[in-house]
Amino acid sequence: MKSAVLLVLLVAFTEGLVKIPLFRGKSARQALEEVGLYEEYKAQYPQPRLQRGLKLNNVPITYDPQVTYYGMIGIGNPPQYFKVLFDTGSADLWVPSLNCTHYSCGNHARFNRSASSTLQKGDGDFTLDYVSGYVKGVTAYDTVLVGDIYVVNQLFGLTYSGGSFLRYMPWDGIQGLAFIGASALGGTPLFKNMWNQGRITQNQFSMYLSKSVEGSALILGGVDEQYFTGPVNWVMVKEEDTYWTIQIDSITINGNTVACSGGCLAIVDSGTALITGPTRDIGNINGWVGAYQAGGDQASVGCSNVGVMPDLVFNIGGNAFHLPASAYVLQHGTSCQTGFEYVPGSWILGEVFMRHYYTVFDVNNSRVGFALAV
Description:
Elements: H1 2-9, E1 12-14, E2 17-24, H2 28-34, H3 38-44, E3 69-75, E4 80-87, E5 93-96, E6 120-130, E7 133-146, E8 149-162, E9 173-176, H4 190-196, E10 204-208, E11 216-220, E12 228-236, E13 245-248, E14 250-253, E15 256-259, E16 264-268, E17 275-277, H5 279-288, E18 300-301, E19 312-316, E20 319-323, H6 325-328, E21 329-332, E22 335-338, E23 340-342, E24 347-349, H7 351-356, E25 357-362, E26 367-373
Keywords: Aspartyl protease, Digestion, Disulfide bond, Hydrolase, Protease, Signal
GO molecular function, one term: aspartic-type endopeptidase activity
Enzyme class: hydrolase
């Protein structure tokens, strides 16, 4: 508990901004591989994340076994501290309940309802279904602490069971940062309540994702110029009140259109590790960069080839966002894979893209900004 409190206290304040440190932990996939369970999990759940963009009855949220970034929040009075995934692809907050004895809650902090003087009961039970599993729990209202920002009467979920691989996630729960229309619990998202309750000076937040274990940050209330160089290039959101969805005009390599011909929609999602898209387009990209499919979810490349592989260029809103091979090739030990994966539905620009581009989410103006990360 002491270490959790120290993490929360490591909050920086610059010109009205509140900076929440994000930490890059071991992914659930790495943890499952270490105990020899990843292939078993993958066979049980061959599609490890929700098919976003399709008209499904499932909850539009991502459980990605490769996501690694998390930060600290407190819930209740006095605060109980949790590591959460700050997920721009969902809108709800949930953490495990003290009453959870399910395997999925193992290794995680759990919320003790009787220890909070400000807890109020919610409307009852909920179930969130996912392609990769589920969570079940009850809703409640309480005070939530993010940095030094207190949000009162915040709706959240307390889970008592869930998908088995959640046990191996580096975080305890999820804090959604999408629009209210993406809320599965039906409440006002935390960030909107921050603004409604006058806790922030600008209705914006931004993210810097470092390649290192430490150094990443969620910035509440605007942008922090120490994390990027050059201008912030703005793109309007296409699906207001749901996800941070933008229009990609095309994806090119050396001037040749290799994917997204004629334009496509993409969700900017910190809850997804890779860049995902339709099978044909991802296969075409991998072919152009010299990758080969050797089984598994991603295509492989020779690690020695990274220096000569081409940039992948995302043409968005009149700007060309170059993604070099050093950004889209991921090395695991002595092997290298591209950070692209086939997933039906909308394109998703996940951690692979957001590590290279500092990303600003402007709620008031329904737009996303990208600037070259330092």
